[in-house]
Amino acid sequence: MLIFFICIALLVLAYKFYSPFVERQAGIDPKAQTPQARFEDGVDYVKVHPVKAYLIQFLNVAGVGPIFGPILGALYGPIALVWIVLGNIIGGAVHDYFSGVLSIKEDGKSLPEIAGHYFNIYFKGVMLVFTAMLLFFVGVVFIMSPAGLLSNLEYFEGTIFANNTFWVLAILGYYFLATMLPIDKIITKLYPIFGLLMIVMTVSIAIALLISAPQLPEVGDIFAYFDHSHYNNDLLEPNPDGLPVWPLLFVTITCGAISGFHSTQAPIMARCLTNEKYVRPVYYGAMMSEGIVACVWALAGIAAFPGGYIELKSILDIGGPGLVVNQVATTYLGAAGGIMAIIAVAIFPITSGDTAFRSLRLTITDAFKIPQSMRNRLLLAIPILVIAYFMTKIDFSLIWRYFAFSNMLLSTSVLWLATKYLFDRGTFHWIVSLPAIVGTSITVSYIMTAGIGLGLPQSMSQPAGLAVGVICLIGLILAHQKRKVATES
């Protein structure tokens, strides 16, 4: 409990004291004309109130990511809370903030276009491939997971609603409308309501857990990774499968700590803000809020079950994180919790899936300079969603593994892009370059170890990831010195 409260306090303090320092490095100009004012088109460039923009951004990036990931990561024990908070403060919030800064400074453009401006056409091509790939994976994951949940609800047993294909097609139909229609027709009207609902659900779960959770580990339990003698009960032993914390924990918990998907959502609100000064509360604030959500659900995984980590693992093996959400919500919040649980694991992922496909449309139109007529939006949306339908036939676990890897890879790429931005400005680039180095090390270690990668032993991947990180650090120091000498001369 003490670790949990410290984590929440650190997130709040980071927004209060660290985010203004980050903002000063970015060159925010409250007097500058925003993309919304310059390119108002009634479709994507639409004026949105900053409070609404915050709630929309929060829901865009949250979905079930900061719920499912932390529940899975809870198997590693209280170290999951530590990673969420450190990852969020040092990496995730800064990553999201500069995603918004870069987009609003570049006319609300998508990441590949920004990458092409600050680097070259080759880096733009790489970013285009990985951005499109991640958006497809996110969209498909957030078709499959809610469709699977809804088709298995006991209320629908024996009806057409128990058919998984029915829900896949229904969700795709909604995605088609959300991708096609102007942003103020669906997203700006419904998302603030769902964003508030997520906040209410999170606060309710947190209070219920702190009052009556059966198993809140002692502070000393965090040191179990170094000395397992702290445990005198096998049920309280974290990480039952003995999986390596590095790099798996960092890839398991992305949303809440750091997620490349968030950067793909940045242009949606960057095209709607009426002043650059709103970038910090909208983007940095949304990520801080997501970190709090992630901490609550990591606590739920750690503390909610009398059988400890063994019980958590067995529930995950039976029904995945969705079953954990359902059990926690119904146990601690009763009937109202059951309703909120269904909304959380069914509606929240849909609100991320639709903006994923909308972002994919924006990314493609930016890359190939396609005018945003109704005909062109149709010609893009239809093939995108048809391909997505056929991708739902692929094994879910395979899709998820590629999503996890591309998520971390893209977040690292964005941090390097932000490094170049601050480097060019001559401001304190280490706020983004150091987390970029850590992200590079994690990504290299993961792809060397993972089955979808090289499948090498853990003993080789960890030193390799560390070595790549050190090389990046040395390269940055040398580049920094070279730039300093050039400036002085």
Walk me through this protein's architecture.
It is built from 17 helices and no strands. The protein has helices at residues 2-26, 35-39, 50-62, 65-73, 79-105, 111-118, 121-151, 164-180, 187-212, 245-252, 260-270, 279-303, 308-368, 374-391, 396-425, 430-449, 458-488. The relative contact order is 0.18.
List the helices and strands and how they pair.
Layout: H1 2-26, H2 35-39, H3 50-62, H4 65-73, H5 79-105, H6 111-118, H7 121-151, H8 164-180, H9 187-212, H10 245-252, H11 260-270, H12 279-303, H13 308-368, H14 374-391, H15 396-425, H16 430-449, H17 458-488
**Topology pattern, helix = H, strand = E:** HHHHHHHHHHHHHHHHH
**Main β sheet profile:** none
Quickly give the structural class. mainly alpha
Question: Termini, distance in Å?
Answer: 55 Å
Provide a quick synopsis of the model.
By secondary structure, the chain is mostly helical.
Which features does this protein show?
489 residues, mainly alpha
